[in-house]
Structure formats: C-alpha cells, structure tokens
Specification:
By secondary structure, the chain is α/β, with parallel strands linked by helices. It has a single domain, classed as Rossmann fold, CATH 3.40.50. 30% of the residues lie in helices and 13% in strands. It contains 6 helices and 5 strands; from the N terminus they run βαβαβαβαααβ. α2 crosses α3. The chain is globular and about 55 Å long. The protein starts with a strand and ends in a 12-residue tail after the last strand.
Amino acid sequence: MCGYIHAHGGAGILGSPKSEMLLCCQLVLDNDIVAFNVTYRLAPEHRSPAGASDIAAAVKFFHENAEDFNINSDELAMGGVSGGGYTTMIASILLAREDKAHLVKLQILENANLGTCLDDAPENTVQQWEKAFRNLVPYDLLATDYETQNKERDPLLYPMYVSLEEAAKLPPTILFTSEFDPVRRSTH
C-alpha cells in the first residue's frame, strides 16, 4: 500500500494538522492509501529549512519503518497545501542534496508559494486585485539569513530557484494552482 506524507499548511486554525485532516481522510478513501498528517517546526521560532528538515526526516522514518505501518517503502508520496507545499518542496531539495530524493515517488504541491511572490514583479504588471497580496509571505521571518538568501536566491528560501542539476534529482511533481490565488505567479 502507498504511504502519503502530508505537510499541513502552517499555523493557526487554517493550515493546522487538524484542519487538514479532512483532506487526508479524503485522500485515503479515494486512493486506498495510508496518509500521515505530519506537523513540522514553524517560523519565526524555527527558520527555514527547519520545517523542511522535519518533513525530510518523516520521509526517511516512514521509509525505514514501512513494514510497521503496512506500507510499501518503494511507494511513498508527499505533499502539502500552501505553506505545506512550500515546505514539501524544500524537503525534496534537502533529500536530493542527500541523494535520498528517490525515497519519494511523487510529490503533490497545492497552491505552494515557490518563488518571491509579487516582491519582484514590476508595478505595471501587477493587477489591482493582486496588490493587497504584494508582501503576502514574510520571507525575512522564514529565512535563516534573509539578506544573503534573498540576494543569492537560495532555493531553501525560494524553491523555484533550484538549479537544473538539483531539479533533475527531484521526484515527479504535480503542482496545483488556481487562477485567482495570490501565490499563483510564484508557482510558474
């Protein structure tokens, strides 16, 4: 049986493990899989890549202990919604850097902010409805060293800047976005 490691979307009522339990239950029922709704350390107390390290550790744990959970260690998937998708993508990069990305056969990212959002978009390209979301993600609160990571476009802060060499090591990825989602530009 396939195991699915789900990274919840963030803190608070929206994006908590409890709020995304329904999503995990639906995935289990529709796909005959075992889902693990994993929590991880959050910023600003724990800066990136701390949370992604937790997700990568969960992948390794479930791979090593697959029999205990009645899952096939060669059929692990992971994913998340919003901040969980962001964290999942960074976890994939960390796994690739350890030559362990092969542990994940598929990652599913839904409305994941993978880039710099609207911070770098020229003013004349930002539509009126998007302006309220200009600084939606407080990257300075997520970063370990914001000045350096922002300047270097560090993929552990902005996953869309992963090198082609590293991207080739990542698992196959399904990316869902929506036309009017405020982070849609950062997923392209």
